[in-house]
Design a protein that fits this description.
The structure holds two protein chains of two kinds. By secondary structure, chain A is α/β, with parallel strands linked by helices. Chain A is built from four helices and five strands, in the order ββαβαβαβα. The termini of chain A are far apart. By secondary structure, chain B is α+β, with helices and mostly antiparallel strands. Chain B is built from four helices and five strands. The chains are: A alpha/beta, B alpha+beta.
Chain lengths: ~130, ~150
């Protein structure tokens, strides 16, 4: 795992903390690492914490959005949390605002959101069974 | 709005050039842009915006210039009481045949997102581009402290 990231297990979820200046190779290796870790541990969710990342350019944004889609394809939920205000402004002006990606202000709020999404899904499944 | 050519540098000696020749140079361009922006007293948002734009423009050189090579030159700028940072990106690549199209979001001849040029223009206070087929491309950006 590169020095720019750390993966922690929190119950059924993964918390991925990114920090520093991410180059293309680093962000792509993080993408592979997180995808395999979700599959290996059968994680139900992954939170990508970017509060320690100074700059997200269009390439990094594209890879992060792709990572979220990959995790969803594996059957888990994913969210990007902790985008700094200056980074959010830059992404919107750049035109790379990742509209389909679930986000939250902090890891704590992101975790609550993942749990809510899971609860909503199980309600839908139960509903299906009873009809 | 003054054209970028008219903006005198606060200290011409303070310019830093970064040769762009590979992916790792993107980090150098970002870090040089960040250092100059901080020295010029830019706030966090203005700094993040200009560093993001610099990253996009350096990436354009990697993707489109001949051999992925070019130069980024960053320095402080001053105009009256204003201070800022200026960065110039030059390459001797194939040039851009249709500048109008290249400046539209979503237009790309290289399989990218097509955000680099139009996105960078939105991020900074001043933006100018010079290019013609066969004569390379020069993009100059400037970000002010207010």
């Amino acid at each position: 795992m590169p020095d720019h990231s750390a993966i922690m297990h929190m119950g059924q979820d993964l918390l991925v903390i990114l920090h520093g200046d991410l180059d293309d190779r680093t962000v792509e290796s993080i993408e592979r690492e997180v995808t395999s870790e979700v599959a290996r541990t059968s994680a139900r969710g992954a939170l990508i914490d970017v509060s320690g990342v100074d700059v997200i350019d269009s390439f990094v944004a594209q890879v992060l959005a792709r990572l979220v889609r990959m995790v969803r394809l594996l059957g888990a939920e994913a969210a990007i949390v902790g985008i700094r205000p200056a980074v959010a402004i830059s992404l919107v002006e750049l035109g790379a605002s990742m509209p389909d990606v679930t986000t939250a202000l902090s890891a704590e709020q992101g975790m609550a959101r993942l749990r809510r999404m899971r609860a909503d899904n199980s309600v839908r499944i139960d509903h299906g069974k009873h009809c | 709005m003054a054209s970028i050519a008219e903006i005198p540098a606060a200290d011409p000696l303070a310019s830093t050039s970064v040769a762009i020749d590979g992916e790792s140079d993107l980090l150098r361009v970002r870090s040089v842009a960040r250092a100059h922006a901080r020295q010029a007293g830019l706030g966090v948002t203005a700094t993040t915006k200009v560093v993001t734009a610099a990253s996009e423009l350096a990436r354009n050189i990697l993707h489109y210039a001949t051999g992925g090579r070019g130069i980024a030159t960053v320095q402080q700028a001053a105009s009256g009481q204003k201070r800022g940072v200026r960065a110039v990106f030059t390459d001797s690549g194939p040039g851009i045949a249709d500048l109008g199209a290249a400046m539209r979001s979503g237009f790309s001849t290289g399989g990218g997102l097509g955000l680099g040029l139009p996105g960078s223009r939105r991020l900074v206070d001043e933006f100018s581009i010079d290019s013609a087929p066969g004569s390379g491309t020069r993009v100059a950006i400037c970000q002010w402290d207010r």
